Amino acid sequence: MILTNDIQNENNQWQEFMHRFEYYLKEHHYPKQKTSMEAL
Questions:
Q1: Enclosing H/E stretch for 15
Q2: Is the pTM of this model over 0.70?
Q3: pLDDT tens digits, residue range 15-25?
Q4: Could you say which DSSP state residue 33 is in?
């Protein structure tokens, strides 16, 4: 159970990083291009 929770926490941190990264790209580099998150 502890191992499962650790993996879930790492997955959540990775998703949060990807969300911030795509937001950064959209806001600072590609303001007119939709990100993969918006396409889903």
A1: helix 2-28
A2: no
A3: 999 999 888 88
A4: S
Instruction: Give the contacts of 25 (CB within 8 A, at least 6 positions apart).
Output: 35
Q: Which residue has 């926490």 as its token pair? A: 9
Residues 6+ apart with CB under 8 A from 2: none
Percent of the chain with pLDDT over 90: 20
List of residues 6+ apart from 19 with CB closer than 8 A: 37
- Which tokens hold the place of 22? 């795509």
H or E, element range at 27: helix 2-28
CA distances to 19, 22, 23, 37 from 10, in Å: 14, 18, 20, 19
